[in-house]
Amino acid sequence: MRVQGLRTTLLTLLALLTSAFGSIYEHAADLPGLQYDFVISICAGGTAGLVVANRLTENPAVNVLVLEAGVSNQGVLDSNIPFFVNNLLAPNIYDWNYTTTPQSALNGRVIPYYRGHILGGCSAHNDMFYTRGSMDDFNRYAALTGDPGWSWDEIFPYFLKNEKWTPPADGHDTSGQFNPAVHSTYGLTEVSLPGFMWSLAPRVIQATREFPDEFPFNLDMNSGRPLGIGWLQSTIGHGVRSSSATAYLAPEFVRRGNLHVLLHARVTRLVGGRRADHGELMFGGVEFMRDGEPDSEILVAKAGKEIILSAGTVGTPHLLMNSGIGDKRALQALGIPTLLDLPSVGTNVSDHPVVGLSWMVNSTQTLESVTQNVTAFSEAFAQWNRSHTGPFVDHGASQLGWFRLDRNASIFKEFRDPAAGPDTPHFELGFSAGIPSIAAPPEGMSGHLMTIGVAVVSPVSRGTITLSSGDPLDPPLINPGYMTSDFDLYTLTEGLKRAQRFLTAPVWRDYVLAPTVDLNAFTPDELQQFIRNSTASTSHLAGSAGMSARGARYGVVDPDLRVKGVKGLRIIDASVLPIVPSAHTQATTYVFAERGSDLLKASWT
Ligand SMILES: Cc1cc2nc3c(=O)[nH]c(=O)nc-3n(C[C@H](O)[C@H](O)[C@H](O)COP(=O)(O)OP(=O)(O)OC[C@H]3O[C@@H](n4cnc5c(N)ncnc54)[C@H](O)[C@@H]3O)c2cc1C
Ligand SMILES: *[C@@H]1O[C@H](CO)[C@@H](O)[C@H](O)[C@H]1NC(C)=O
Ligand SMILES: *[C@@H]1O[C@H](CO)[C@@H](O)[C@H](O)[C@H]1NC(C)=O
Ligand SMILES: *[C@@H]1O[C@H](CO)[C@@H](O)[C@H](O)[C@H]1NC(C)=O
Ligand SMILES: *[C@@H]1O[C@H](CO)[C@@H](O)[C@H](O)[C@H]1NC(C)=O
Ligand SMILES: *[C@@H]1O[C@H](CO)[C@@H](O)[C@H](O)[C@H]1NC(C)=O
Ligand SMILES: *[C@@H]1O[C@H](CO)[C@@H](O)[C@H](O)[C@H]1NC(C)=O
Ligand SMILES: *[C@@H]1O[C@H](CO)[C@@H](O)[C@H](O)[C@H]1NC(C)=O
């Protein structure tokens, strides 16, 4: 170990004795120095960043600094209690408060774009759905990059390494609700089935028996073959959210003397850019300051081995461009000197648009029985507090369904099938027993509801992340380009029809009373306008620093996640997924982070 490393270790021991949070620091002055082997900048301790920090520090000879702009997750009830899922959304200290640019295909609407500003990143404030995507999704990543290491078969062990399968909070018999053969109990992220049964859930399953051809039951959507309707699995353990912060920064890991996490540390750019022996660009470290205090001192953390960016699909391209890595003309226009002309940074981003539909139901056993009743709400809170059981252990979603358009759908005359393969869905239906948490019921509605979210999961639309100015503290411009392709509009329309057809199964006869918006009263043009007016984001943005084959004419990182043309700089987060998977994106982010950690270890032993 180098002298510097030794000094760092000694100082760390000292810091451990004095800091209440082990090696999670609130102030830069408390850090044991600013020289580390790996600086996971920014990663902020997000979903991927904390996986990498954990795995690298398994080796006590390696020291790691994580710089997270956000706040601590410790004791944040709105993050811990699954039922409070919406309480953390913007504007809020737990969120970056971003919005999209006016969306041309959504009648110019500007919509919120949520990003976690808390240790654990989005995993500490997302909806906790645990979906792995299809085998095809991963096999396409392997084909696009020429690296079989990203194929389903090779990635599958990383799902098992990440996952800790956990019994549901109500301890119910889960046989017939999942396939144990595709799960593991030895990982870190807790995953479980719903732990509180609302009146909706058994009816969804009954409907799959009544309409098995169009809506088949799928025992386990996380087998790599997701098509059909199955029970939702969530990153929840024993009634509490499992985030990358609770799992990968559990006390036994925080205790490691070589792992340092600084909160409120806003990274502004990579610094010390120079040309290495073979002309490759290299950086010495990252510049950061206290988050939310633009006049605070600017500090530099130096990385002896590598810098890893894990700032997420918005933060990572933002940092790259602020550091002079991006499209030369765009950087020049903002007065940022270009260190590396890499035009794909921030382009080609993809996301899943979603429209929610609600129906009044003939049941009092819905989320509204808790959200609209102060007494029931306090009882549920007290029950969760006492035993981590009761209505607060979930947020009311019970099943998901994954579907393809009809083979002969007219849209295929105009578009090639954008799905990754024949086992990959075009759209998703998500079933919820009401309207979760603080989200207000539709205007003028009271009573009990059910909701079906319809999302396009093989979108053709693409968008961009660009800079709004040369000031790294200014928010970037987020343009997901929702519905800019007619394919996506067509698919969402078909998804809405499919949801309506599902509700014609006999089981719904005494249950579904009336829709809150009657789609059948719309002309086709009005229906299209309704979709444009009500499309929301799933926050599944991917691809802003996309992976491509070595030597490809586009892309930002090579298949080993190294930034093309730069030495000692990797990106490990959802930005590298070249195309959004046909699934909620956290499981994919976790496995990319797990394999990314192995790639890092392999190059430093
Ligand atoms: C509201 C919401 C709901 C979602 N629901 C689901 C779901 O149910 N299931 C699912 O699978 N996926 C869901 N997702 C998506 C999923 O959570 C994300 O795709 C995934 O967590 C992204 O991980 P990441 O590591 O790429 O980024 P993040 O987790 O966002 O991590 C990035 C981190 O970097 C920090 N950071 C950024 N810039 C800087 C900077 N300059 N300096 C220092 N730190 C910085 C951020 O504060 C953050 O902690 C949801 C996302 C959101 C926002
Ligand atoms: C988001 O807005 C809230 C309320 O205005 C504010 O308190 C919070 O600091 C903002 N978050 C960030 C990251 O700036
Ligand atoms: C509200 O909840 C309490 C406690 O569960 C219950 O006794 C009461 O009947 C509920 N009120 C209404 C209007 O449903
Ligand atoms: C939760 O339990 C603690 C004691 O364990 C108590 O102080 C607190 O008031 C309880 N909160 C609620 C909402 O029941
Ligand atoms: C597609 O085929 C089905 C029968 O398999 C038929 O009912 C439907 O009308 C066809 N749709 C189109 C757009 O041709
Ligand atoms: C509501 O459900 C009950 C059975 O639980 C049934 O008797 C009644 O007819 C239903 N009401 C409507 C309007 O469907
Ligand atoms: C869509 O929104 C516009 C206003 O932006 C409104 O004029 C129109 O009636 C809305 N249409 C539907 C079907 O919601
Ligand atoms: C976007 O990604 C696709 C592969 O998914 C690639 O073929 C295309 O060249 C990329 N475009 C840009 C501008 O990077």
TrEMBL record:
Signal peptide: 1-22
Superkingdom assignment: Eukaryota
InterPro entries: FAD/NAD-bd_sf, GMC_OxRdtase, GMC_OxRdtase_N, GMC_OxRtase_C
A Pfam family matched in the record: GMC_oxred_C
A GO molecular-function annotation: oxidoreductase activity, acting on CH-OH group of donors
Domain Glucose-methanol-choline oxidoreductase N-terminal: residue ranges: 312-326
Gene3D superfamilies: FAD/NAD(P)-binding domain, Glucose Oxidase, domain 3
Residues reported to bind FAD: 267
UniProt cofactor(s): FAD
Residues annotated as catalytic: 540, 584
Key words of the record: FAD, Flavoprotein, Signal
Family membership: Belongs to the GMC oxidoreductase family.
Protein name: Aryl-alcohol oxidase-like protein
